[in-house]
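Duplicate of earlier report; Phosphatidylglycerol lysyltransferase input re-posted below.
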Amino acid sequence: MASKKRLFIEMGVMALLIGVTFSILLRQCDLRDILTTIRSADASYLALAIGCMVLFVFCGGWCVRVFFQSMGEKMSVGRCFRYSLTELFFSAITPSSTGGQPMQAVVMVDDGYSATATTAVLLAVAGLYKCAMLAIFFIIYALNRAFLQPQLSGMYILFLLGVAANVILIAIILMGLFCRKLVNALSAKFLNLLLRMKILKNPERAVERLNYRLNSFHECADFMRKHPLTVFRSFLITLLQRLSVLMVPYLVYRALGLSGIGVWQIMGLQLILLVSSDMIPLPGSVGVSESLFLVLYDAIFGKTLLYSAIMLCRGISFYLLLIVSGCSVLFTRYLNLRRKCRA
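Output:
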C-alpha cells in the first residue's frame, strides 16, 4: 500500500511539473505557429529520431542480457525491452533517477532471476553507463572545444558540478567494486557515526542492509574480473545507447530544414545539457532540461524555430518515452495480477 501511495505521489509531482513547464513555455509563444512548424517538419528525420529512441531502449536491456547470457541465463528480446522500459519509467518519475534500477531489479527477481546476480549486474551497468557518458563527452569536447566553450557561459558552475557529481559517483562505484577492505572500513565507520548521532533507529537492520550492499558490490567486482570480454561488450553497447539518444536533437535540427552545424557539435551541446541537469533533483529533470535547452540551442534554431525544436526534442526523447514506458509498466502489472488470480 505504501509503495502504491508513493508511486501516485511521484506521478502527481511529475504531472504538476509538466503542467507548469508547458504553461510557461506556451505563454511565451504562439501554439498555432509551433504546430504549423511541426507539421511541416521532415517526417523521415523525425522517424529516424524515434528509431534512435527505440535503439536506446533496446540497448538498455541488451546490456543486461549480455551479462546474464555470460552466466548461462536466458533472456528474450521482449524481456530486454520490458526491463529497460521499467527502468526508464521509474527513473523518469523519481528525483535524480533514483527509482529506476531498484524497480527494474524487483521485476527481474519476480521473473525468476537471482537477486544477487541481478543486483551485481545492475551495479555494473550503472557504472558503465556513467563511464560511457563521460568518455563520449570528453572526446566530443576535445574535438569541438572552440564551439562548445562559449556555450558554457552562464551555466559553467552548474556544468562543473554535474561533471564532478558524475566523476565522484564513478569513483564510488569503482572503489566499491575493487577496494573491498577500504570500503568495508569506511562503511563501518560511517555507520557507527550515524548510530552515535542517533540518526538510525534500527541499527540491526542498518547493519544487515549494509552487509547486503557490500556483498553485492564485491560479487559484482568478482564477476567483472572473471568476465572482462563481457564487460567490454557491454561498454560498447552502452556507448551505442548514449550516442543514439544524443542524435535526437541533430535529427530534429535537420527535420526543421536547418544545416550548417555538425552532428558532433550538436551532440556536444546535448551532453552539456544532460551533464548540467544531472545536478538538479527533479523527476526527469522536467523544467530544468527545457530551460537549459532554451539557453544552449537559442543560436542553433533561432527564435522562430526554438520552441518547435524543444517540443520535438523533448517530446521524442522524454515525453513519448514516458508514455510508452508507463503503458508497458501498467500492462505488465495487469498481466501479473491476472496470473495471480488464475493461480
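The longest helix spans residues 298-342.

Merging into the original ticket.
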